[in-house]
């Protein structure tokens, strides 16, 4: 497979020099910490299949910490609830307006809380569904039908939504798709190998798109 050469427009710097994903720790009672193997497996897959150099370890960060500005890519997932304080919403907005990117994956029952809390971050904006022709869906691997269906949930059609700052996708949100379940160790959700590979490929697309906008 041809290697992809990317240039990261994000202004954040990382001490290791390698690409890292930071799990966003949030308040509200949702299990922000679930499936800690997910990012590690995705990062290893990315390093094996692209020319992106990674630091493949599980790490988390809180919005209230200045450390959040060290990471160009945040990952947020969970079941149930999330609550941003006024200060956290303002800091997340600052992070995103300065080039940061956040990927949110609904691990089930997360949709309403995510939409409510992101309205605190961007009161003037709504999530918009991305068309299948959007560049993220063929950034490295081809997903002509949009997000894959990794986990059944309510058996609804998987969807991908975004919040744009000017023309840049700053927030990407998958619903009824749950690819991060497929990133986790094989024994966690017992997904078949082809589903796990599909999910890892899709995660690669998200990272590639976030870094190359």
Mind explaining what this structure looks like?
This protein has a single domain, classed as 3-Layer(aba) Sandwich (Rossmann fold), CATH 3.40.50. 31% of the residues lie in helices and 17% in strands. It has six helices and seven strands; from the N terminus they run E-H-E-E-H-E-H-E-E-E-H-H-H. A seven-stranded mixed beta sheet has the order 2-1-3-4-7-6-5. The longest helix has 20 residues.
Write the layout of secondary structure elements.
Elements: E1 22-25, H1 37-49, E2 60-62, E3 73-78, H2 86-97, E4 101-106, H3 111-121, E5 128-129, E6 159-165, E7 168-175, H4 179-183, H5 186-189, H6 193-212
Parallel strand pairs: 1-2, 1-3, 3-4, 4-7
Antiparallel strand pairs: 5-6, 6-7
Helix pairs in contact: 1-6, 2-3
